[in-house]
Design brief:
With 190 residues, the protein is an all-alpha fold. 71% of the residues lie in helices and 0% in strands.
């Protein structure tokens, strides 16, 4: 008879996420995750096979959490609704503490086909959520959503070398310029 699980898969994934955000994907080990949970490495391997499988499960969980997060925003198709949504997701990026580790995670997404596919799905969901809030009557809402998402990503990369803080405010400042170009006559307070 198999022994009962002392930790749910969700608890393991939460602990693994904490370890990943602290160590980055290169130094991430099953031993560190097992130690964080107070379980044996062997028990962790029995459930998740290896480091890659656990990282894949973490990425799947991240896609699901992104979907839940985006679904939690109220719908709306006005310029103000779009700006409120963009402001919320950008300010949710925080002050940038630990962002270097997120950059390493993005690098691992670029080198592992499974992680790359899940990362692409997460980005598509964000872009679709932006597109769903572009005001009705705006020409080519999908292209605008793609552009606004690119501004967020590009400004995030600029922030890494700009030596300005916090990250969310830095990105929002740049995004407000793009919004002013897309919607002249509106003001976008960063």
């Amino acid at each position: 008879m198999p022994r009962p699980k002392l930790h749910s898969d969700e608890a393991v994934l939460e602990a693994a996420s904490d370890v990943l955000l602290r160590t980055g994907p290169i130094q991430f080990t099953l031993s560190d995750v097992a130690q964080a949970l107070g379980m044996s490495r062997a028990a962790l391997i029995q459930r998740f096979q290896n480091k890659s499988a656990l990282l894949h499960r973490l990425a799947e969980r991240d896609v699901a959490l992104t979907r839940e997060y985006l679904d939690g925003f109220p719908p709306g198709r006005s310029v103000e609704d779009l700006w409120r949504f963009l402001s919320d997701i950008v300010l949710g990026m925080g002050d940038g503490a630990g962002f270097q580790v997120r950059l390493l995670i993005a690098w691992s997404e670029a080198t592992d086909p499974v992680l790359k596919g899940l990362g692409s799905e997460r980005y598509r969901r964000v872009q679709a959520a932006i597109s769903a809030r572009v005001p009705l009557g705006t020409p080519n809402p999908e292209a605008l959503a793609e552009h606004l998402h690119a501004v967020i990503a590009g400004a995030t990369m600029q922030w890494l070398v700009a030596d300005e803080a916090p990250l969310g405010r830095f990105v929002l400042d740049r995004l407000s310029v793009a919004m002013a170009i897309a919607f002249p006559g509106h003001e976008f307070e960063a």
